[in-house]
Specification:
By secondary structure, this protein is α/β, with parallel strands linked by helices. The protein has one domain: UDP-N-acetylmuramoyl-L-alanine:D-glutamate ligase (3-Layer(aba) Sandwich). Helix content is 36%, strand content 23%. The protein has a six-stranded parallel beta sheet, with helices on both faces. Strands 3-2-6-7 form a four-stranded mixed beta sheet. α4 links the parallel β8 and β9.
C-alpha cells in the first residue's frame, strides 16, 4: 500500500489558452479544468488508476467538496480536521505546452494540525510499503517538519519518499543524517539549489546531475530521482547511476508530471524492479502525464516504458565531490 501525505492541498484550476500568454491582453480559453489536487493526492490518483492500494492523508473536512470529490473518484481518504479553507492553485497552459503557475499560500497550520497529520501518517505507515510526503508546507509549519516526520517514520518499516522544494527541501537535506528518506525527487533547479551547481548545467547534462545527486546519497538518502524536464531523468543509488531519455511526445501540460514520475518509481519498486527499470517506468509515467491536459493522471495503458531509453552512467562521470556535506556545498556558492 502507498500512503500519501499532502500537507497543503489545493483545488487545481487549469486554463488552457488558445495561443500565447500576453500580459495585459484579452485572452481566450480553450478549456477550464478543475480538480482536487496536490502532489500527494496526485500520486494517490495514479495509484488508484494502476489498481494499487493507497490512502491519501490531507487536511480537510470529511464532508468538504475536496474530500467528497476524491471519494467519489474511488480514492480512500484520511481527512484531518483543517484550520481553514483549501487553497486554489491556478495554471495557465499555452498551446505549445508552456505553463505558468500561480499558487496561493493556503490556510495557516498550527501545532495541533501538524500533530494530527503526523499521527495519521505514522498510524497508517505500519501497513504501508511506501509513505510519500509531497508538496509545499502550509504557512505556519516549521521548515524542518518533513524532516521530522521522515525521521519518525524510520521505525515503521515503510519506505519514505519526499518531494518538496525551497526551505523544506533544504531543511531535509540538512537533516539526512537522521531523516534518511529512501527517495528524494528534486527537479534540476531544486537539486542545484541543494548542491550549489549551475541549474542549467544540471538539467542539460545527466553526468552533472548524477554527480550532484550522488552527494545527497552519500549524505544519507537512499536514492535520488532527479527529473530533468525534456532531458528525462537521472537515478542515483548507492549501487550506481542511470539516465533515461523520454519518448517523443507533444507536451500539453507539465503540471503533475513530476508527481507521476515519482509514482512510476514507487510502482516499479513495489514490483521488485531493478534501479534501471524503476527509472524507466518513472520517466514513462512523467512523459505520459506531460502529454495530457491539466493535472490529468495517466492510466497504465497510456504509459510506454518500452519507448524509454536507459543508460548507466560511468563511475568516472559520477565521482562525488571531495566534500560531501550538502550544507557545506551550499555555503560555497
Amino acid at each position: 500500500m502507498i500512503v500519501t501525505l499532502t500537507a497543503n492541498p489545493s483545488f487545481d484550476r487549469t486554463i488552457a489558452l488558445s495561443g500565447h500568454l500576453e500580459r495585459g491582453g484579452v485572452l481566450r480559453a480553450d478549456a477550464v479544468l478543475e480538480q482536487a489536487g496536490g502532489k500527494g493526492v496526485n500520486i494517490s490518483r495514479a495509484a488508484l488508476a494502476a489498481s494499487e492500494d493507497t490512502i491519501a492523508v490531507f487536511p480537510a473536512a470529511g464532508d468538504s467538496p475536496f474530500t467528497v470529490e476524491l471519494q467519489q473518484a474511488g480514492l480512500t481518504c484520511r481527512p484531518v480536521a483543517p484550520t481553514g479553507a483549501i487553497r486554489v492553485n491556478l495554471t495557465l497552459s499555452e498551446a505549445d505546452g508552456t505553463t505558468t503557475k500561480i499558487n496561493s499560500a493556503g490556510a495557516v497550520a498550527d501545532a495541533a494540525l501538524l500533530a494530527r497529520l503526523r499521527a495519521a501518517v505514522t498510524d497508517l505507515a505500519g501497513s504501508a510499503q511506501w509513505v510519500v510526503l509531497a508538496g509545499s508546507l502550509p504557512p505556519g509549519a516549521p521548515d524542518d517538519w518533513y524532516a521530522e516526520v521522515a525521521a519518525a517514520l524510520t521505525t515503521t518499516g515503510a519506505k519514505v519518499a519526499v518531494d518538496t522544494s525551497d526551505r523544506p527541501l533544504i531543511a531535509l537535506a540538512d537533516a539526512l543524517g537522521t531523516a534518511r528518506p529512501d527517495l528524494m525527487k528534486p527537479n534540476a533547479e531544486e537539486l542545484a539549489q541543494l548542491t550549489g551547481d549551475d541549474p542549467a548545467a544540471v538539467e542539460a547534462d545527466p553526468a552533472v546531475a548524477a554527480a550532484a545527486a550522488r552527494r545527497l546519497v552519500d549524505a544519507g538518502t537512499g536514492a535520488v530521482l532527479a527529473t530533468l524536464g525534456a532531458a528525462g531523468a537521472v537515478l542515483v543509488t548507492a549501487e550506481g547511476a542511470w539516465s533515461a531519455t523520454p519518448p517523443p511526445i507533444t507536451v500539453v501540460s507539465t503540471v503533475g508530471a513530476g508527481d507521476s514520475s515519482l509514482f512510476g518509481y514507487v510502482l516499479a519498486d513495489l514490483r521488485n524492479a531493478e534501479p534501471a527499470e524503476r527509472l524507466r517506468l518513472a520517466v514513462a509515467y512523467g512523459s505520459a502525464a506531460a502529454s495530457l491536459p491539466g493535472t490529468t493522471i495517466p492510466a497504465p495503458h497510456q504509459v510506454r516504458p518500452d519507448l524509454v531509453e536507459v543508460h548507466q552512467i560511468s563511475p568516472e562521470a559520477n565521482d562525488p565531490a571531495p566534500e560531501t556535506e550538502v550544507s557545506a556545498m551550499r555555503e560555497q556558492r
